[in-house]
Amino acid sequence: MIEIEIRKEDEFIKLGQALKKAGLVESGVDAKFVIQDGLVTVNGEVETQRGKKLHGGELVSYNGETVKIVR
């Protein structure tokens, strides 16, 4: 499991940014396409909004990898 920490000055991280920060996609464009294609889940539910706000404790899954968002 990969852990992504939200910066102290931020309350959340957007889904596309989290995928990039975790190294699961190379660019924001790649993130956009995999999210729009329904290949990404947040807390077990398919998420199609790239700008979805993620808070501490949420789990993102893509391509066999799981990312935990930590505060």
UniProtKB/TrEMBL annotation:
One of its GO terms (molecular function) is RNA binding. It comes from the Bacteria. The keyword Kinase does not apply. Pfam families: S4_2. Gene3D superfamilies: RNA-binding S4 domain. Keywords: RNA-binding. The keyword RNA-binding applies. This is RNA-binding S4 domain-containing protein.
